[in-house]
Design a protein that fits this description.
Strand content of chain A: 5-15%
Distance between the termini of chain A: 57 Å
Oligomer: heterodimer
Distance between the termini of chain B: 69 Å
Structural class of chain A: alpha/beta
Shape of chain A: globular
Strand order of the largest sheet of chain A: 3-2-1-4-7-6-8-5
Shape of chain B: rod-shaped
Order of helices and strands of chain B: H
Chain lengths: 485, 48
């Protein structure tokens, strides 16, 4: 075989990097019980200042505060600081009422000039609590999240180990009533949080403290300068990296459950993930000195962490490389293209079965309501290809004449890994069009939620390359969120 | 009260014991799933 063919085969098999990375993480997650440094609960718990950035969040804040007051935690050791970013709704009145209802517990920090974004709002709160000096740990949360009663205690217990600098919780999708998109997001969070973050606990390195629930030890906050990053769209990821670069550990607590409302429409999800995706691109560049530098960056510079990080951030590139390689092989050697295709989809099949079943096992409660979305996660078209490729050796192209219908179908299947991203974008366009809203959900099941995630990552790259303005697009929240269990 | 009382502590510790059991089950379920997937691969290769 010629060098070109080997290069093309490598390009095709690049499409197996993301699923194999998923399998690797699920295997690690399964070993979570053997992780090092398990926490115990003592009587003494740190004084926690909860910082809640809020801009026009009156619809959700009351319940958030009420739930925080009911936390299973010594009440004199928690204070809630709502940082009101010059809200123009009823937030100030609501907070005045809540401060009266819970004296000493609720603190209203008003910014008269707002609009600089969430990170600046949080920093205002951080400056205030540091000036006050009461806190031993700070918890930064979103205004709409619902903390289950034992969640804070489950998180704070990890500070029993001095090497732990920050702890994050398991954010679960809790929109009520839920729709098809919420169920896809719920399943995604099982893979991206319950599994991936357990795996990161085992590896001893974390990519991101969940923005909705991050508990940071005072010493760690001070070690990173007492403020969070305002130069990227992923301030929580920057905080996570910086804390670990100071030599402290970040921990995920899978049993600290926090419910959050997530977007109900593809367009809203697209906007949110575009921000996350652009943030990841910025972080990748911001920490260029970290990647593959095990000596200076510790576990952040390790191969395992790079695999996990780049399998996600470079996913669109892997998919496009795979399709391009297949089509090029098809033009050079149709028989070889068929063989390599079979190998790629065999890997995809094994990964799909392992990841889907493991996800169901990782969070059985969520699995009960999202198993259909779990099965349809790659999309019904990809699923058909996976199953067909598994049952019969795909199509022997030696017996297929060029230009026939079957030949065209084979070519379609070859480009689907990339074309599915275009399909996902068309689903968004379909929703934007608004003429056939009933068609959006079935179209997404056919195209797949996985390709939608990939398409949003690709869109983030495009927007970042175009040098689009860096602004914080707030995800609209209605307050329709609750514990589903 | 600045500290957890006995009842709170007992309740929380019992929850932690539940968590440990869950993590142990997770491990064994993972082993079963891995065996299941391995059996599927062997079956497919055997059938040709």
């Amino acid at each position: 075989m010629r060098v070109l063919e080997w290069i093309l085969i490598a390009m095709v098999l690049a499409g197996s990097v993301p699923p194999l990375s998923g399998v690797y993480q699920f295997v690690l997650a399964t070993l979570h019980r053997f992780r090092r440094g398990r926490a115990v609960i003592g009587r003494d718990q740190p004084r926690v200042a909860i910082v809640v950035p809020a801009w026009n969040e009156a619809a959700v804040l009351e319940r958030t505060i009420d739930r925080l007051f009911r936390l299973d935690y010594p009440p004199e050791r928690v204070r809630v600081y709502i940082v009101d970013d010059a809200s123009t709704d009823d937030t100030p009145e609501l907070l005045a009422r809540k401060a009266d209802q819970y004296p000493g517990f609720v603190h209203h920090l008003r910014r008269e000039k707002g609009g600089e974004g969430k990170a600046h709002t949080i920093n205002h709160g951080l400056r205030e609590i540091q000036a006050e000096g009461w806190y031993e740990a700070v918890m930064i949360i979103d205004a709409d999240v619902i903390f289950t009663e034992a969640s804070l205690l489950r998180m704070s217990r990890h500070f029993d180990r001095p090497e732990v600098g920050a702890v994050t919780a398991y954010i679960k999708e809790g929109s009520r009533p839920e729709n098809f998109l919420n169920r896809f997001v719920a399943f995604e969070y099982v893979t991206a949080q319950a599994a991936a973050r357990r795996a990161q606990n085992v590896l001893g390195v974390h990519a991101c403290l969940a923005g909705g629930a991050q508990l940071v030890r005072r010493e760690s906050l001070e070690a990173i300068g007492g403020q969070i990053d305002t130069t990227t769209l992923a301030e929580d990821t920057v905080t996570t990296f910086n804390i670990q670069l100071t030599g402290k550990q970040v921990v995920f607590e899978p049993h600290a459950i926090v419910w959050a409302e997530e977007p109900r429409a593809v367009g809203a999800l697209w906007k949110q993930r575009l921000r996350w995706g652009r943030g990841n691109v910025q972080v990748t560049r911001h920490f260029a000195r970290v990647w593959f530098h095990r000596g200076s960056a510790g576990r952040l510079g390790g191969l395992s962490f790079a695999l996990i990080w780049f399998a996600v951030t470079l996913m669109p590139i892997f998919m496009i490389a795979s399709s391009t390689g297949l089509v090029a092989l098809y033009l050079i050697d149709r028989s070889l293209s068929s063989t390599v295709f079979g190998a790629l989809w065999a890997i995809n099949l094994v990964s799909y079965v392992f990841i889907t079943l493991s996800s169901f096992s990782m969070d059985p409660t969520t699995a009960k309501r999202t198993w259909r979305e779990g099965i349809a996660f790659p999309g019904l078209i990809s699923l058909t290809i996976i199953l067909y490729a598994a049952i019969s050796p795909f199509v022997n192209l030696d017996n297929v004449a060029t230009g026939t219908t079957l030949d065209v179908i084979v070519l379609f299947v070859y480009v689907w890994l990339s074309a599915s991203m275009l399909g996902a974008w068309l689903v968004k366009r379909l929703e934007d069009w608004g003429k056939v809203p009933w068609l959006v959900a079935p179209a997404l099941y056919v195209v797949g939620y996985g390709p939608l995630l990939c398409a949003m990552t690709a869109a983030a790259y495009i927007k970042q390359l175009r040098g689009a303005e860096m602004k914080w697009d707030k995800t609209e929240k209605t307050g329709a969120v609750g514990e589903l269990v | 009260v600045n500290y957890l009382d006995d009842l709170q502590l007992e309740r929380v510790q019992s929850k932690i014991a539940e968590e440990d059991r869950f993590e142990a089950r997770l491990f064994w379920r993972g082993v079963m799933i891995a065996l299941f997937v391995a059996a599927l691969i062997v079956l497919r290769l055997t059938l040709g």
